[in-house]
Amino acid sequence: MNSKKSNHPDSGIVRSLALSLAFCLSLAGPIGLQAQETANGEAFELEKLVVEGYADSLRQSMQAKRSTTEVSDVILSEDIGQFPDENVAEALQRITGVQIQRNDGEGTYISVRGVEPGLNMVTVDGRTASSGGFERAFDFSTLSADLVSSLRVIKSQSADLVEGGIGAVVEIQTPKPLNFRDPRVARLTATFSHMDLLDDWSNKYSGLFSQQFDDGKQGFLVSFALEDNVQRTDNFGNNGWVRNAIDGGQDLFTPRFFLHQSYIRDRERKGVTGAYQWQPSDQIKLTLSGNWNQYTTEQARNAYNVNTPNRTGAFPDILDDYTFNENGTGIAFDGQTNQSVPIQQYTLRNTIVNGYGANIEWKPSDRLSLEFDASVSESYNDSNPENRVDIRWNPAEFPAGVYSLPESGSGVPDLRLTGIDPNDRTLYNVRQLNLNRIINENEDTALAADLDYQFEEGFFSSFETGLRLSERTTDRPRRIGLTRRPANFPIGIETPESAVVPFPIDNYLDASGADVIRSWMVVDQQKTLDYLAAEGLSFDLSDPWANPNPLQIFSINEEVFAGYAKLNFETLWGEIPINGNFGFRYADTSLNSRGSSSIGGVVEPVSIDTGYDDVLPSFTIVAKPRQDLVLRLAGASVMTRPQLDFMTVSQTVNLERVPVSINNGNPYLDPYRADQLDLSVEWYINDIDSFSLAFFYKDVESFVTTSATTVPFTEELAPGVAIAPGEEVALNRPENLAGDTVEGFEVAYQKQFANLPEPFDGLGFTANYTYTKSGIGPRNTIFADADLRNADGTFPDSALTQLPLEGLSKHSYNLVGFYDKGPFSMRLAYNWRERYLLNSRFHQNAPLMREDYGQWDGRIQYRVNEKIKLTLDAINLDDSTTYEFYAHDVSSPNPDSAERIRLFSQTGRKINAGVTYSF
């Protein structure tokens, strides 16, 4: 059940109330976060589990999974520490149903059961988490795994969970002082890293100090992680294949350009968590807690661009230099290029995420428990995606070039220029300075109150209810994209010799096996600017924010009022114990979107109020027909709100075009909505061996995608535009489209060979596999027959190609072999996922795919004594590479042909050596 509404007043009431309550609670005493709970109200504090080795961590994680009502998986802190994982995303990939997206070799976003990253709800200490920007997806690269005590992935929804997790709810817990077994816990870890592709060392330092006092009634904790990581990535790419329409014949596709790139990236990640707790009695527990994380990346990009000729409907002789295969793909070229230029670029990204809050748990009687929570979280993202001196080809005639795609149909082509040296600075001139910068800001505030009443006897064991009021404000206060050139700047200034520096690497793209350009001219940007200044040609760099583009500055305020009621039950069906819950959650969402509208070149501010509400029923039934067997059945209605920049009111209306074109956001979007069902069977063979099988089904009512189509005009499409209702307009904006189903199954097995003779009794393995299929996804027009167009220029659904969901791999699996006995442990892990859709409409509407990817990681650990532990990690042992391509055959969700290259990326192996000292 859902509905829309409008006329929502914009206010900051939630922030004011949250800050007031946090202040009042802090006066009463230090405030704490709630423990994890099972659905029947039994406290289950993950941090209090005692973990003394990798096998024990598997044992305790299995017990946590077994004890909870929801379909979920748990990873404990020692488990995270035992894997050779760079961050939380790479720890989560070991869980069945979880697939990660890697950028530059590091895990960033996760998909759960085939659902895209933005459809997961991520919380830190029970509070919604943001990583900056407008997407709902959480970027896990901003969070160090060293600051996490436990992870829990909840795949079945219950009424008490914050709405927003169509894929899953991911709960991240940071450590708390009163949850440790020992009164004092202190440790320091130093890790040093070396990459194959870069002859340089990186380092990471982390530590934790926790102290209890007042006979264990009070405690404080501080943890930190400091990482300085230098890495290199080699890429070879192409930003699109141009469709060259041939009258009466086959469409021919030629590459826009081939781009050689090598990035050297200096990444700093800093994080601090803190907590102070006071539990004067069993009836009350108070805590203050907070976290601060900063992620800074400085990147130097050296690239060389070779433009290949193409056309859009004229000059067929341009195509004579190409050889095309039966698919219309230009597999070879021998002729004159359009242009070949070096590119040097500097990029800086700075993201800060912090959160703090107050919580009180109060148990006035044996049956009644109350909990109150107030929190504020903030994120700030400052990014200049491009800051470069623009260099152009100098001679009047461009060089000749030759390329040929691999015979296998996929991979990096052989490519070379003839008759020139790409390192010759006299071939290029300095043209202008390009500046880009974007700032995004987010603030989330929330108030929550929960009640739990335990019944004395009967079918129902307890009743839970609660309210939550939250407000999220997202701003893009600044964005610029400028080209600066002095008024007296001559077009043909030769690249100064004083600015040229040696090519920084000697093994560019060795892993590709292709004959590509291996080096080119590199200039130092600052030395170039210094030279120009000495020649009286200084660029005007003063106040780059002086003339921002108002159409790219906007603000969105989202307020949510939510409440829930849940009944937990326990009973016997014959001799079979049955427990579970049923309930519902109500969420009322109000939205205020502010921006600017350009109509015929006239820019004016715009503001729209809208909203919707949802009633989300859910149930879970758990049966234990045997002591070692657990059956779970869960169902729920779920929803996830669209990403915030989709709902901006900023728009551009071009009245000169025929038909009139409208490009805008859509504040009237409905959320993603779905009904889901989960069924799992779990066999706990002994205290560590287990087997589980889970089936899932999601009926997605609607999803959101960006579409370009011709439609009859209505006032809702572009408020304030004087166009007659019903007149055809060309519209490009996010829209709600009808959904379909997502379904599949997961299977997992873990085993330790404890019955083998010593020392082989420490051997074991874990394995899991996930199968997901979907009929849902955006419809693509690129392969539709033009003769099937409707009269208005659109295509009927029957003529469109159905694509899979973005981020959905049909098959994925994990294999981990381990040895854990005494002071020595060792693991070898392999993670694999099948190719998947990255973008349904990339260049010229072509679907963009990422190829199958698998990676081996390993770890060796030795405990010298109770205080010292040594570790050695090997990441990406097999030197796996990433390959992306434009699909030209989408007759199935995973097209067979991958010949139209988009990107080949190599990050190389990485070795970490670390020591941990506990005292």
Structure description:
By secondary structure, this protein is mostly beta strands. 6% of the residues lie in helices and 55% in strands. The longest helix is centred in the N-terminal third of the chain and has 16 residues, at 13-28. Residues 3-44, 46-50 and 890-895 have low confidence and may be disordered.
Descriptive keywords:
5 helices; about 5% helix; globular; about 900 residues; 32-stranded mixed beta sheet; mainly beta
Strand content of the residues, in percent?
A: over 45%
The percent range for helix content is under 10%
- The average pLDDT value, as a whole number, equals 83
Sheet with the most strands?
Answer: 32 strands, mixed
| Approximate shape | globular
Uncertain regions spanning at least 5 consecutive residues: 3-44, 46-50, 890-895
> Structural class of the helices, strands and pairings?
mainly beta
Gap from first CA to last CA: 56 Å
Task: Count the DSSP helices.
Answer: 5
- Find the count of extended strands (DSSP E, 2+ residues): 49
Write down the Rg: 29 Å
Topology:
Elements: E1 2-6, H1 13-28, H2 54-67, E2 72-76, H3 77-82, H4 88-92, E3 98-103, E4 106-112, E5 121-124, E6 127-128, E7 150-154, E8 169-173, E9 184-195, E10 198-213, E11 218-237, E12 241-244, E13 252-255, E14 257-281, E15 284-307, E16 322-324, E17 330-336, E18 339-362, E19 368-384, E20 387-393, E21 400-404, E22 414-418, E23 428-454, E24 460-484, E25 493-494, E26 500-501, E27 522-523, H5 525-534, E28 554-573, E29 576-599, E30 602-626, E31 629-640, E32 651-654, E33 660-664, E34 672-684, E35 690-712, E36 728-738, E37 741-752, E38 763-774, E39 779-780, E40 801-802, E41 811-821, E42 824-833, E43 836-839, E44 848-850, E45 853-863, E46 868-875, E47 881-886, E48 901-906, E49 910-918
Parallel strand pairs: 5-8, 29-32, 33-36
Antiparallel strand pairs: 1-30, 2-7, 3-4, 5-6, 7-8, 9-10, 9-49, 10-11, 11-14, 11-48, 12-13, 14-15, 15-18, 16-17, 17-21, 18-19, 19-23, 20-23, 21-22, 23-24, 23-25, 24-28, 26-27, 28-29, 29-30, 30-31, 31-34, 32-33, 34-35, 35-36, 35-37, 37-38, 38-41, 39-40, 41-42, 42-45, 43-44, 44-47, 45-46, 46-49, ...
